[in-house]
Amino acid sequence: MNTQEIVELCKRHTIFSWSAQGGVAPLAIERAAGIYLWDTDGKRYVDFNSQLMCNNIGHNHPKVAAAIKAQADKLMFVYPGFATEPRARLGKLLAEITPPHINKFFFTNGGAEANEGAIKVARLFTGRQKILSRYRSYHGATHAAMQLTGDPRRWATEPGAPGFIRVMDPIPYRYSFGATDAEKTRNNLEYLSEVIDYEGPHNIAAMFIEPVIGTNGILPPPEGYLQGLRALLDKHGILLVCDEVMAGFGRTGKMFAHEHGGIAPDMISMAKGLTSAALPLGALGLSDKIAEHFDKNVFWSGLTYSAHPMGLAAAVAAIEVLRDEKLVENAAKMEGVMRRHMEALKAKHPSIGSYRATGLFGALEFQKNAQGERLGGYNQPHPAILKTVKECLSKGLFTSNHWNTLFCNPPLSITEEQLAESFAIIDDCLHNTDEAFEG
Ligand SMILES: Cc1ncc(COP(=O)(O)O)c(C=O)c1O
Questions:
Q1: Which DSSP letter does residue 136 get?
Q2: Same domain, yes or no, for 148 and 274?
């Protein structure tokens, strides 16, 4: 098929996510390797968002491809009631890289299902019904995961299931809990403590957080927040679920983002970097205490494709690559390089108000004036930012924006030279946002 036929048939017969279908204009991609994608006309693009922040080890890693092929030749599928070698290997591997008290995993098809599982498990284990999560969050598109989600993608599914309470995190969109990290942490936890009182702590099963907020701004928590939150929830017997779907598997320069706060959750939901997106797979890690509960009590969940051997084999290979090629370490090392590029762009382009990077989890944030007002509003990306994203694509760099932020989340295998190449393209396109800067 030629490019036009591919695009036309995809548009005519398939649905594209989160869009009015009439407006979509997809690029037709043919192949990928490392940090690059090639379209069906042979044009090359840097993947500066690791697709949906999921391709952590880079595209089409030969070791993962070989593991998938080997598994396909031996055993493509058996139902989840059987034991298999990839299942044995991945369970052991995950137990090694998660906190010491997390040793059992339930496998799903992706991140939303891992969070759905966590909601059920939290309720079954505690006997409580209410679930806390935060407004600046995304936890998945299935029905209950949408109720965990704070961002506007939730609105279409409301009123949704009962029992979900959303709160502000320490860095809400407009409201300020204080000027310093210490103030933000203290004041936010005091506010949360009061919400918990109002809701009745004995009714609350769990709180879900992204330890570094992903799509909703790439926001690391203020100093002390994760420890303070852990202590507050412990005081009330409320479980802490860390959604590491996006931030996990090395993205932040540590294997899991919660490690930055020196805390350990009761459950971890994972997906994306688990297979580096080679095949769909999610997982929910359970603490020993929670896992023991299900020795005597039924684990009321299951999926036809839970523990699918192909996904598990891909995950084992992807995690081994992450380890063997020291990509978590590379993400930590490249943070400084990325920050230097961001600082240089900020010095040159008045429309950049701020930037952040934790490992290779980064964003540029745009302002419309010297007072630091955001360029565009809540849930309203400014046309100049959309133009920037489009021009980057035309100049050979794929990335994405969330309202007034531009995402900088390349595969963790990126080199210094490739970062320089990527930021040079972005530099070239920022005249769009600078033209919208009002001074
Ligand atoms: C933090 C977080 N949790 C959950 C999900 C949902 O994962 P999936 O799309 O695999 O269902 C996402 C997806 O972007 C995510 O970023």
A1: S
A2: yes
Residue 385's pLDDT is 98
Say yes or no: 284 and 237 in one domain. Answer: yes
DSSP strand pairing (204-209 vs 130-134): parallel
Give the model confidence (pLDDT) of 213-246 as tens digits: 999 999 999 999 999 999 999 999 999 999 999 9
Give the whole-angstrom CA distance, residue 191 versus residue 388.
38
- Residue-range definition of the domain harbouring residue 414: 3-57+326-436
Q: What is the pLDDT of residues 58-82, one digit of tens each?
A: 999 999 999 999 999 999 999 999 9
**142: Cβ contacts below 8 Å, ≥ 6 apart:** 112, 113, 116
> pLDDT tens for residues 348-359?
999 999 999 999
- Which of 52, 109, 139 has the most ligand 1 atoms within 8 A of CB, as the residue to mutate? 139
Mean pLDDT of 306-328: 98
> How far is it, in rounded angstroms, from Cα 430 to Cα 392?
9
Determine if ligand 1 sits within 6 Å of the CB of residue 205. Answer: no
User: 123 and 30 in one domain?
Assistant: no
Q: Is the CB of 117 under 6 A from ligand 1?
A: no
pLDDT at 399: 98
Q: How far apart are CA 203 and CA 171, in angstroms?
A: 26
CATH of the domain at 416: 3.90.1150.10
With a 6 A CB cut-off, is 392 part of the ligand 1 pocket?
no
Q: Could you tell me the CATH number of the domain that includes residue 192? A: 3.40.640.10
Q: 68 with 38, same domain? A: no
